[in-house]
């Protein structure tokens, strides 16, 4: 959730970015003063790391629960830094022709999204493996789901019957009423202390946890 270009309330004006890591075990928060990591292994939100060396952090992505982190600052919005945050060292940096809008990574790849292109890097050496140019919209996003039904039908024999039935029903099986409206937020499903939880990080600076 990138809030760098959003107008937020005064109480959360310092918040620029928030996201969950790939397995939803930690929350990363970027702000005008730096960035922080919070553990989601227990119901109580626990800060596990804080960095104030880099200001105006508008993107911060952590690789699972490792020490590898990708950072973008508003002071250099075209520059990506990959760091080892526990050692406090910068592993490498990479500059692009346009502003970086989003960064995603897994154990093998690091993807950088610009306004009209995507760069796919090998995460081991940051070598560019693929470059994709696309006519993206500056105001809205589009998702194609036309073939999703065929994917479900093809994978029916591999999925538990309950999962297949849930996808085929196309309806909500649980709902949550948030204590706000109009705020930008991100959601994730995670298991905390062996209990399934719904996590909602909102632009007002709060993390909401539901059963």
Automatic annotation (TrEMBL):
<dbReference type="InterPro" id="IPR036322">
    <property type="entry name" value="WD40_repeat_dom_sf"/>
</dbReference>
<dbReference type="Pfam" id="PF21032">
    <property type="entry name" value="PROPPIN"/>
</dbReference>
<keyword id="KW-0677">Repeat</keyword>
<dbReference type="InterPro" id="IPR048720">
    <property type="entry name" value="PROPPIN"/>
</dbReference>
<protein>
    <submittedName>
        <fullName>Putative wd repeat domain phosphoinositide-interacting protein 2</fullName>
    </submittedName>
</protein>
<keyword id="KW-0853">WD repeat</keyword>
């Amino acid at each position: 959730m990138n809030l760098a270009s959003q107008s937020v309330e005064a109480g959360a004006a310092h918040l620029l970015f928030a996201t969950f890591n790939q397995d939803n075990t930690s929350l990363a928060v970027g702000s005008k003063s730096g960035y922080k990591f919070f553990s989601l292994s227990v119901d109580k939100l626990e800060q596990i790391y804080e960095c104030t060396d880099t200001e105006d952090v508008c993107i911060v992505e952590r690789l699972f629960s490792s020490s590898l982190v990708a950072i973008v600052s508003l002071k250099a919005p075209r520059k990506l830094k990959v760091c080892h945050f526990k050692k406090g060292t910068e592993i490498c940096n990479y500059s692009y022709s346009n502003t970086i809008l989003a960064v995603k990574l897994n154990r093998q790849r690091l993807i950088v999204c610009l306004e009209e292109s995507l760069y796919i890097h090998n995460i081991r050496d940051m070598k560019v493996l693929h470059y994709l140019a696309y006519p993206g919209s500056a105001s809205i996003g589009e998702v194609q789901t036309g073939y999703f039904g065929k994917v479900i039908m093809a994978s029916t024999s591999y999925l538990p019957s309950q999962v297949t039935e849930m996808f085929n029903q196309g309806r909500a099986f649980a709902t949550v009423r948030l204590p706000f409206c109009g705020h930008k937020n991100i959601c994730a499903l995670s298991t905390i202390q062996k209990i399934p939880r719904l996590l909602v990080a909102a632009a007002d600076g709060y993390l909401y946890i539901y059963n």
